[in-house]
Amino acid sequence: MDSKPSTSADSTANGSIYVSAEVTTAAKILVVGHFAVGKTTFIGSLSEITPLRTEEKMTQASMHVDNLRGAPDKATTTVALDFGRLTLSDELVLYLFGTPGQQRFMQLWEDMARGALGALLLVDPSRLEETFPVIDLIDEYGLEYAIAVNTFSQTSHFEEDEIREALDLLPDTPVIYCDARDQRSSARALIALVRHLLDRAA
Asked: Which of 16, 81, 183, 186 is the most exposed place for a label (fewest CB within 10 A)?
């Protein structure tokens, strides 16, 4: 797990748009969280291939439905999924699936969760209350998960024990702080989830 993740630049330079023949294990990971928490940005910062994005411009109608608190400049929203790929080692590749954050797209979760090993739950510390419906879905589909506190906005800061108490987390649920815009920071969060999944499977 200490292998340096491949980067988009490495992938482009080597022309490696396909998975290496040496890879023996592929894992499906969900990147989840409420609306405008940074899922698309997170996957984009990590993916070694050009990410698949299904973003559409927000309309006046959606402005009355989607809560833009904490993201007043947001102009697009994911309407189906984000998809990226990250090779962690010579043997292991991760396929990253980002889920829409709005309640009206929750019917997609059943298909998205099928076959997933676990989920990385992105959290905005200034909007913790919006995380509970996502945790309910994670529990409903029986997914192991880790918390990634996205610190791209410094408007609010909470210590780890405050995050754990507020979200009523189990003691062994990993909590890591990251900046979804930064590749190395995002990679650390994802590796924390993978290590947690390996520990749970042991």
From this structure: 16
User: For residue 95, what are its two tokens?
Assistant: 């396929």
Place of tokens 């291939």: 49
- SS3 string, the chain, reads CCCCCCCHHHHHHHCCCCCCCCCCEEEEEEEECCCCCCHHHHHHHHCCCCCEEEEEECCHHHHCCCCCCCCCCCCEEEEEEEEEEEECCCCEEEEEEECCCCHHHHHHHHHHHCCCCEEEEEECHHHHHHHHHHHHHHHHCCCEEEEEEECCCCCCCCCHHHHHHHHCCCCCCCEEEECCCCHHHHHHHHHHHHHHHHHHHC
Mean pLDDT, rounded, for 9-31: 71
- C-alpha to C-alpha distance for 52 and 22, rounded to whole angstroms: 24
pTM for this structure? 0.78
